[in-house]
Amino acid sequence: MFTQPRTSPLVFGLCAAALLGLAALSVLTGAGRIAPGQVVDYLLGARGDEHLEMVVATLRLPRTLAAVAVGAALGVSGMLLQSVTRNPLAETGLLGVNSGAALGVVVGIVHAGAQTGGAYLVWALGGAFAATGVVLLLGSRFSPLKLLLAGAALSATLTGITSALLVADPVTFDQYRFWVLGSLAGVPLERVLAVSPAILAGLGMAALAARPLAALSLGDDVAVTLGHRPGRVRITVTVAVTLLSAAAVAVAGPVGFLGLLAGYVARTVLGGGIGPQIALSGLAGAVVLLGSDVLARVVIRPYEAPVSLLIALLGAPVLIVVARSRAVAAGAGDLIAEKSARGRGILRSPARWTGGSAPLPSDALPVRLGAFSVLLPLRSSMAAVVLAGLAAAAGVVAITAGQSAMTAGQALNALLGTGEGGQILLVQQIRLPRIVAGLTAGAALGLSGCLTQALARNRLATPDMLGINQGAVIAIMLAGLASSAATLFEHWWTGPLGALVAAVVVFGISGGIGTRGYRFIITGLAMTTLAGALVQSLLAWRGLSAATAVHAWTVGSLTGRGYPVALPVAVGLAVLLPAALALARRLAVLRFDEDVSAGLGVSPRTTRLLILALAVVLAGLGIGIGGPIAFVALAAPVIAARLSGPARLPLIGAPLTGAALVVTADTVGRVVADGAEIPAGVVTSILGGPFLLWTLLSDRR
Questions:
Q1: pLDDT the model gives residue 346
Q2: What's the pLDDT at 290?
Q3: How far apart are CA 637 and CA 653, in angstroms?
Q4: Residue 245 contacts by C-beta under 8 Å, 6 or more apart in sequence?
Q5: Smallest Cα–Cα separation from 556: which of 669, 432, 431?
Q6: Which of 30, 201, 645, 685 is the most exposed place for a label (fewest CB within 10 A)?
Q7: GO MF annotations for this entry (predicted)?
Q8: Given pLDDT bands bounded at 50, 70 and 90, which one contains residue 591?
Q9: HEC string for 344-387
């Protein structure tokens, strides 16, 4: 890194020149066929027609100013968060601050009719302030990587609440699906002027906080010795980040990765010195956003590419690079198996990563039937029975509950075909097929999560976190766009293919399975964020009615699901579950090092590939039914392991738990709101975020 102060003027000069050049290019560039010479003449005072005046004065100039203001705001806010949390991965988009601001705007639109820039700012401030407070509270307790994962949990919960509001309000969803892409098209000058006081105030507070932040980087005690108050500094940063991020979201929507990119550039180029880094991050953010906006107008003319997707294409690789840096890896020990165990040639049991506090002696009971005998694990068998009962109970409740509620007796009569005609139709043709679909999807996701957690020896290594789910989603959406099928889930068979491609990419980039587990978790998170931007782009390019239906599926929904998609997945489970049980013994041997495993007759590489293939296919099948129902693959193995104990992998309990969770979430979504149905994935997102936070807090690994 370049640390000499004499390089700073040159760096700032180059950034300023790039910003001016891009600003000129932004004013001269657009989808229209107006010659640059006409624009220059108009800017120099020549009279033009109404069309030229409208394009330049009403569209391009406000758009350019908005890009500079939003880019600078997000760049500075990202650098402030990175400085106060001492975490190079901190960024308002990744830590959920932008999601909080976006939720505030959606609440304002739905419940208060907010339409102006000033109204957007007020509501965005409330959401951003709450999210920033949570981030800073967690930042004092978590390592850099855990803070990033906690931000993902917070973002998932806030996004789930936002989706719940949008499902019930198609008009607001129509505005949101374009706004969430981070587009600067059509931003009026009035909106930029309305939020400019908040941006100026945030930038001013950032300047005042530069020196105290430099002292705070040496430790709270040193900062106090130098005359600073750490508590007051953190409050100042909280307010500044809130103002900047809320103003940016109010103008352009939740643009992610920009603060991460700007902070990375500032640290790499300038090295030490927080004050210059904050200033350069603002310039870098403006340059990146303005350059991306110009590129978005010309890359697929006459249409515009989503700005958030272009920035995600830049930010995802940077996230992976920063996560693999020494500074971050040094604080990632809580996500890696202990080095002392590696040195002794012993790794912890895969079951140890999915629950419990210490391996327990075997509780198996020998059962003999003539010449045959089998060891029956008592605790895990009892847990499986209990979980099967819970799954069955969830199905019974799902049959009786709904907008057209009925008693258990009426539901049973309808199930047997002896009740009223309308109730028979409702139970046998609508609710029962949906319940079967939910049970199979949940079982597939639960077993997939159990296998990936055991394979990586990490509770957080689930298809949700590794980007595998999003790979399946994109494959199914692309297949739907390329065909004339009436519904997306008719292409359920493409889910495993997309999941397999995503798994190959994630593990290929991160260097394989079993080493430095935090690497593929962060790589998966980067891929998930990038894929999410692509999914939002595909939604924006569809008509409103089609986009509304597809949006419900992309967050995880069982609406309209039935036997045609549930039965193939059930057949797949009937084949893959015994295969997973057959590989369980081999997977247990992998707790030892490569040489010991090979000596016991197990090929570590082959076993890992087989387990990964099973997990990927199961995840793809589950998503083919219900979409990416979030956190089921994370929660199901953890809950099952708590009941069955840490001595064995919950290969039976995890799918049973997943089935119960999905059906329960679907039932809650059907009955919690009058006149509207909340997708099951939205319910699991809202509840799964706190569950992930609990997992991070309760597990030192």
A1: 34
A2: 94
A3: 7
A4: 73, 74, 77, 92, 97, 98, 101, 124, 128, 132
A5: 669
A6: 201
A7: transmembrane transporter activity
A8: low
A9: CCECCCHHHHHCCCCCCCCCEEEEEECCEEEEEEHHHHHHHHHH
Tell whether the model's pLDDT for residue 336 goes beyond 50: no
DSSP state of 334: G
The residues, any chain, with a CB within 8 Å of residue 578's CB and separated by 6 or more, are: none
Residues 6+ apart with CB under 8 A from 233: 84, 209, 212, 213, 216, 223
* CA gap 700, 660 in Å, rounded: 28
Spatial separation of the C-alpha atoms in residues 159 and 192, rounded to whole Å: 25
One-letter amino acid at 669 equals G
Q: Which of 193-207, 411-425, 458-472, 675-689 has the highest mean pLDDT?
A: 193-207
pLDDT band for position 484 (50/70/90)? Answer: low
CA distance 403 to 670: 7
Three-state SS annotation for 185-224:
CCCCHHHHHHHHHHHHHHHHHHHHHHHHHHHHCCCHHHHH
Sign, CA dihedral 71-315-533-463, equals negative
Q: Determine the pLDDT at residue 427.
A: 86
For 579-585, the CB contacts below 8 A with 24+ separation are: 579/614, 580/447, 580/451, 580/611, 580/614, 580/651, 581/651, 583/607, 583/610, 583/611, 583/614, 584/648, 584/649, 584/651
pTM here is 0.81
DSSP single-letter state for residue 289: H
Report H helices in 6-60. Answer: 7-28, 36-43, 50-53
Mapped onto helix, strand or coil, the DSSP state of residue 446 is helix
In terms of Cα–Cα distance, which of 102, 131, 87, 146 is closest to 465?
A: 146
**623-633 pLDDT per residue, tens:** 988 888 989 99
pLDDT at 344 over 50: no
Q: Is 6's pLDDT higher than 70? A: no
CA distance 45 to 224: 57
Give the integer Cα–Cα distance in Å for 298 and 30: 7
Nearest CA among 353, 276, 328, 274 for reference residue 646: 353
Residues above pLDDT 70, as percent of the chain: 85
Top pLDDT among 543 and 641 is at 641
Question: What is the distance between the alpha carbons of residues 644 and 388, in angstroms, rounded to a whole number?
Answer: 13
Given its phi and psi angles, is residue 395 left (phi above 0), alpha (psi -120 to 50 degrees) or beta?
Answer: alpha
Question: What does the alpha-carbon distance between residue 136 and residue 142 come to, in Å, rounded to a whole number?
Answer: 10
Q: How far apart are CA 355 and CA 589, in angstroms?
A: 18
Q: Does the bond joining 5 to the residue before it have cis omega, within 30 degrees of 0?
A: no
Lowest mean pLDDT among 103-107, 128-132, 215-219, 444-448: 215-219
Task: Locate all alpha helices (DSSP H) within 541-652, ordered by sequence.
Answer: 544-554, 563-589, 594-599, 604-626, 632-644
Mean pLDDT of 473-483: 82
Token code pair at residue 520: 């593929």
How buried is 574 (Cβ within 10 angstroms: 0-12 exposed, 13-18 middle, 19+ buried)? exposed
Q: Tell me if residue 515 falls in helix, strand or coil.
A: coil
Q: How far apart are CA 670 and CA 95, in angstroms?
A: 30
